[in-house]
Amino acid sequence: xxxxxxKWSCQVCTYLNWPRAIxxxxxxxxxxxxxxxxxxxxTSGTGPPADPCEEYNDRNRLHTRAQCWTCSVCSYENWPKxxxxxVCDHPRPNDAFQxxxxxxxxxxxxxxxxxRAWGVCSxxxxxxxASSKHEAELQIELAAGAQSGNEEIxxxxxxxxxxxxxxxxxxxxxxxxxxGVVEGNxxxxxxxxxxxxxxxxxxxxxxxxxxxxxxxxxSGFTLVHLAIRFxxxxxxxxxxxxxSQQAVKCIPAMVCPELTEQIRREISASLHQRKGDFNCYFxxxxxxxxxxxxxxxxxxxxxxxxxxxILDRDVQKELEEESxxxxxxxxxxxxxxxxxxxxxxxxxxxxxxxxxLQATWGIYDKDSVLRKALHDCLHDCSHxxxxxxxxxxxxxxxxxxxxxxxxxxxxxxxxxxxxNLASQPGASLEQTHIFVLAHILRRPIxxxxxxxxKSFRGETLGYTRFQGVYLxxxxxxxxxxxxxxxxGYTRGHFSALVGMETxxxxxxxxxxxxxxxxxxxxxxxxxxxxxxxLLQIHFLSAxxxxxxxxxxxxxxxWLDCCVTDGGMLAAxxxxxxxRHHPLITQMLEKWLDGYRQMHPCPTLSDGEDExxxxxx
Length: 616
Description:
Elements (H helix, E strand, L loop, with lengths): L7 E2 L6 E2 L34 H16 L1 E2 L6 E2 L24 H17 L13 H34 L2 H15 L2 H9 L10 H7 L11 H7 L3 H11 L8 H4 L1 H13 L1 E3 L7 E3 L16 H11 L2 H10 L7 H6 L5 E2 L8 H10 L8 H12 L1 H18 L8 H16 L7 H11 L3 E5 L2 E3 L5 E4 L4 E3 L14 E6 L2 E6 L21 E7 L21 H11 L2 E3 L5 E8 L5 H15 L10 H9 L1
Parallel strand pairs: 8-12
Antiparallel strand pairs: 1-2, 3-4, 5-6, 7-13, 8-11, 9-10, 12-13, 14-16, 15-16
Helix pairs in contact: 1-2, 2-3, 4-5, 7-8, 10-20, 15-17, 15-18
């Protein structure tokens, strides 16, 4: 028909293209010249003949790219035989043998071929001559525009590939954390922090290019900037706590990885399950971690550096000054040498488990040994813990004037949520989990915590309910130890509270002369708050609840208690150097050696001072 008379048919896909189209609209193949009988093909003199090796190279690239599989997490192109991503260690999906991006590679190869065809015409292929000067200028303009566009696409693709090849695992975790802040995914941020990533790290132009979302990301942005911009207040509260810690942390478990692994194996070996109706897991060893007394022998400048690297200064300040939860008693802190120190740990959801192991063995729950034992106890002894939890929650609600009743299905749903938290690594834990941990340790746990939840702006959001004493009430008293451990709680985070070893306590005043063994270190833990009110005992049954005198009697039954000269009820946390685990002693010695070798330069006001000292 006359409608199709001017169109030309593509020799590759037979698509009918408009007369002025210089390549196929459907498959992007270059229009080939159809010679008349009187015309003979001739080679253009403006360019060299096409090298057949280039064509083979392009084919090989296409074949190789089709065989490679692309990681769905970091988009890195991996070799066909690799089962995990070489960059982010993500496992290969089931459909990895299928090319994930079939269109993009082929288009790149086609752009290369077509780009080469603009300047080179072989003997069997060349551009048709222009019928007029205007048409020739138009064709040249179109060809030049297409060529520059193709080159830009190819250069951009190569640039992205180079950036991806330079990326390390930490870089991908950082990009995932940035995307997690925008999307409200806290787990991505926690994964980056747990890997030791720098919270103050800024996005580079290359990283912004990879994220490919200009409306959300910009060069120089940090995780804090993104959290403020997208109003992620829960994430921002955690980030602000982390950013304020300027000092590089150096705890004993980090300095001695070999000894730390041996300690973890010791913990696993000491976990046993008791036979009987209440078949709960328990630890066979009584271990208490204290800061070594040798710290006091170090120069003041070295001591300050050591405390900066092992303590959580923000937690220490909040518990001491802002909330007056610990070290508020001058009698305990100074005269009885019972000052508590908040150890730094990871700010992920495992902080409760980390702090429990830090207060006992001085290490993290890196392999989730304690979390697994916690989950197994809740599962195997579910009936025992469920009854206590349900009775305690009902009483606690009624004590605040909330009179309501829940169906058993609702109670079961809430209990299933608590069980689920214990089984997920990184999930935040609640009061019930502390109660179960007291049974695993076979010793009381005292939590000194802030009373109110607060936003990063300082606004009160609600009660925390964590502070108090957690007793292993479901065990027999004879099966448990009376020496407690202490934890601190601040704004969704737990920290181990430990004391410092002493040379004996025969000169520390009344209430301390309970043992003449100089090898024993005793830390006095107050059982009252700064207002002299008795700390709450959690998860009591109806028979165990009573007046303050009855609860004090219960505390004396489960803990070693004494009343100081100032009339304060305190629990005694005892630890012996002779009974100290040898692996922990080795770990602390190796950690301290690094500080013993530091020699701070004295600042002399006059050079003659040093000479005078030598003369003397």
